[in-house]
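Cross-check.
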Amino acid sequence: QVWMRSPECREDFGPISESSPVRQYSRAYLYHLHEVHELLGTMLLAEHNLNLYLKFFEALRSHIKSGTLQKFAAWFLQTQTCDAPEAKGQTPPKKRQKI
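Predicted model, tokenized:
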């Protein structure tokens, strides 16, 4: 994951990703657009994120067809998520009560 609001992006003149449809725009430029609340920044990041979703669902369909969905899901949870999956048997956190 890349947090475009992080100070490291301010002077990073590399692309957000080599495979992104908006790779011609640097992270520094996207950071600037976000800082000045320019709509183009939101539009470019939306295009980038939609492309990621497209690739993700293409991979899902491919693994479903080949019968390797469980292996893909295990790989995905290990490498592509921020939080570790909850262990079985743990109780979920309590919901906040309305006041």
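The chain has three helices and no strands. The mean pLDDT is 85. Passed to J.P. for a second look.
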